[in-house]
């Protein structure tokens, strides 16, 4: 019995204490293991997400152009409006070159054309001006076969009118019916016919006329004017081949700043302290050469209009190298014997 190991009371207490302290350690180890697994799982998941995003980004970058386009840069800078204006300017420049606004190209294009017209004469009229049109047809404006023979001489004459605000209504139908009978209208489909829209009408007329007819000159006439047609043709023949010609009865005058008065100009403050209009041709009858009409066509969207069509055109001519020709024969209210127009 002496050789057998013996367990003392102290040994029992030490072993019991060892077991008690090892339980919390085991629990801590267990929770530490779980926490490690959780962290490792999150890290692995984040790594997978990063890998997936990197692959998607790489794929997207491969599909995008290597060099940023102008559109991308403008989108970043928030300059969409600038981009639009650049595109419009490029289109206008291309159109100007194609239509021969530049003098050298104008000469070149003329050599390839068949027979260039002398003039397109647009007689402004309105929905309520039937009697005035009949008066013109009965006096100076040719009708039927005579109108066709005049075109063979190189002169086109048309009544110019827009469309009703209510498209297709009785006003439009009456004009269409009248035109079907007389075939002497030039209808501006994109223009709304109204008294307050006359300054815009002059832009539509010159822009559309220069696109439809190749002529030396484009003439605007009011429908309350009697014309010496042969005298006008002779005047135009004398100036054939003259570029940048702005011909009319030149005038200036006071800018009316009081609302409610005749000839009131809403933009009166733009004309300075003197409140005087710049030199411009009277709206009753004036003439533009082809390149000036093309200038209006090309820049139509950006040309500012004033209260009246004659001052509007005069303001546009100030911005180009137009040759102002003050011809008293075009002063319809004058007492000259050789004038080519008179008030009806």
From TrEMBL:
GO terms for cellular component: Golgi membrane. Its main location: Golgi. It is a single-pass type II membrane protein. The keyword Metal-binding does not apply. It holds the Pfam family Galactosyl_T. It is an enzyme of class 2 (transferase). Residues 22-99 form the DUF4094 domain. Keywords: Glycosyltransferase, Golgi apparatus, Manganese, Membrane, Signal-anchor, Transferase, Transmembrane, Transmembrane helix. It is found in: Golgi apparatus membrane. Its EC number is 2.4.1.-. Belongs to the glycosyltransferase 31 family. PANTHER family: BETA-1,3-N-ACETYLGLUCOSAMINYLTRANSFERASE, HYDROXYPROLINE O-GALACTOSYLTRANSFERASE HPGT3. Possesses hydroxyproline O-galactosyltransferase activity. Transfers galactose from UDP-galactose to hydroxyproline residues in the arabinogalactan proteins (AGPs). Is specific for AGPs containing non-contiguous peptidyl hydroxyproline residues. The addition of galactose onto the peptidyl hydroxyproline residues in AGP core proteins represents the first committed step in arabinogalactan polysaccharide addition. AGP glycans play essential roles in both vegetative and reproductive plant growth. This is Hexosyltransferase.
